[in-house]
Amino acid sequence: MVTTKDEELMESLRVVIDPEIGLNVVELGLIRGIDVNEADDTANLTMILTTPFCPYGPQLIEQVRMVGNKVMSGGVTVEIGAELWDPSMMEEGAGGDWGLF
């Protein structure tokens, strides 16, 4: 199966778990954008947090950056988006185990 670099990057981020909720950042819909520059193998990610003052926010952002750097040899930058998170952003079926749906 051939995957694009952005798909590979997104799949790699499934290991980053929000410790309060127990779901990964992809399932939660926190990764809002991926811009891959294949010329220099870098990526710019836009992500949001479940709450503006998430106590694990800095840790999650750093983990996303570190995991992304394993996929993108040129490095990854993470920007925080202005969007407010809501459960409708979650992957279909992800909230069932959490008791949301």
CATH top-level class: Alpha Beta
In what range is the share of β-strand residues?
15-25%
Largest sheet, strands/sense/barrel:
3 strands, mixed
Query: How many separate structural domains?
Result: 1
What integer is the average pLDDT? Answer: 90
Series of secondary-structure elements, N-terminal to C-terminal: HEEHE
Shape: globular
Class from secondary-structure proportions: alpha+beta
* Overall helicity: 10-25%
- Strand order in the sheet with the most strands: 1-2-3
**CATH evolutionary superfamily:** Fe-S cluster assembly (FSCA)
CATH topology: GMP Synthetase, Chain A, domain 3
- Which second-level CATH architecture applies? 2-Layer Sandwich
Secondary structure: number of strands: 3
Question: What does this entry look like structurally?
Answer:
The structure is a single chain. This protein has 101 residues and is an alpha+beta fold. The chain has one domain: GMP Synthetase, Chain A, domain 3, CATH 3.30.300.130. The chain is 23% helix and 19% strand. It has a 3-stranded mixed sheet with strand order 1-2-3, covered by helices on one side. Helix 2 (57-71) links the parallel strand 2 (42-47) and strand 3 (75-80). The chain is globular, with a radius of gyration of 13 Å. The mean pLDDT is 90.
